[in-house]
């Protein structure tokens, strides 16, 4: 055993828990992004009237320089990295906060103080708005730091370039920090804040490096500390035993190599078929998913096509977009979900009321109550796309809570010769799944929302991430109940929430009896390969074991004990 100098007060082997975002295991030293030297924005007397105009010009130039640099990096990056950098550049030039800062300078504040105050004002506003807006707070703070550094003639804050492969740990990461990362040098990410949909998560998925977010206690791990990040279990082990850590990395590499060889179709090792499908959000994503062994599309999130639209797209335009996805998977199963607008995915043209609790408000199918044409136009568009492509897609409604809602939706779909189903995301729907199945032909379980509503915990909250873990036995009990309803009525029940992207949990879901698993394209091979390595009896044994546990951690451990 080698005696090692410890950089942290945490004892060797301490396991910190977070939310797993991208699977994989890495063992390397920690690096942390550079922070700004502490600046006291309150310091400095108010500016004389005569100096205010030139200070405003200095500020405008600094903000433009920062935006320009971000745009330049966006031009050199690709895919999601380029998009997030471009979005941050746009935010850096947003009239709202620029105007607020200029106003402060006009009133006498020096530029640094004005920037700090204006950004604080917008951070507060975005935080109150919650959901996706709250996740942009990190971007706003990043812009503040860059503009202040520019005003003070300091180097831009950001990620240091490591000389050995390293694990980037931070409170949260702004897109500008993560977008240009070299995955050979930054081999994993871990953050104290952030949710599964934060920019950190998006970039990690694109880079294909393990990632854990919302890690409690990570702030106490300084740069230089050796850590083992496990993006499958969502853990960060501080100064682990070196031999054990290296063995864990080697095992993860073996699993990844096996996954890369999996070519479908989805089945257990003894031939029990469970279709492995892809979640997509547009034609481009569908074409990319078609490159994987995915056997179809289990969830087409249509609302994501229209997040930036002010007005409802015409039936013809919608039909064109849906037809692209149907074309990509021609001859295979495609499940199109009708607009799941509201809560963290507001659509301007859906006419959302002002609500104190949008996650519990008028979202998903509930919008059709006040705006029936929106649903009917969309179903017309799906039917037109089906005709154009000569396919018969399945359609499903989000956020169904009652059998009445399912019945009404099924009527609309059947009258257009579409196969109707509904999502099970609300505990009420899981409890009465059998009655819902009197009206529709299939169910698809959305474990993201089912966890949120079962555990009464906001799915966007990093603090509550342990509660919204789909391994929560209460959530799995509702999944089991839903599947039983499907078996009793001989109708298919799939899972399309993030739970289906976790290879171990996917096997448990297969053991519970689901007929399909639909996950992000990047997760398809990992899920398929894990399933192919287990017998149906093992999956069932794991399913029985998790249902009698009392915590998410115990459920995971019980499944691991059976499925390895
Ligand atoms: C879910 O809730 O699990 C789901 C698949 O829907 P979304 O994540 O789009 O809300
Ligand atoms: Mg949902």
TrEMBL record:
Domain Phosphotransferase system enzyme I N-terminal stretches: 17-136
Enzyme Commission (EC) number: 2.7.3.9
Keywords for this protein: Cytoplasm, Kinase, Magnesium, Metal-binding, Phosphotransferase system, Pyruvate, Sugar transport, Transferase, Transport
One annotated GO biological process: phosphoenolpyruvate-dependent sugar phosphotransferase system
Residues reported in the UniProt entry to bind phosphoenolpyruvate: 301, 337, 448-449, 459
PEP-utilising enzyme C-terminal domain location: 265-532
Signal peptide span: none
GO CC annotation terms, alphabetical: cytoplasm
Active site: residue positions: 199 (tele-phosphohistidine intermediate), 496 (proton donor)
PEP-utilising enzyme mobile domain mapped to chain residues: 165-234
Cofactor: Mg(2+)
Catalytic activity: L-histidyl-[protein] + phosphoenolpyruvate = N(pros)-phospho-L-histidyl-[protein] + pyruvate
Annotated binding of Mg(2+), by residue: 425, 449
Domain of life: Bacteria
GO MF annotation, one: kinase activity
UniProt similarity note: Belongs to the PEP-utilizing enzyme family.
PANTHER family associated with the record: PHOSPHOENOLPYRUVATE-PROTEIN PHOSPHOTRANSFERASE
Protein name per UniProt: Phosphoenolpyruvate-protein phosphotransferase
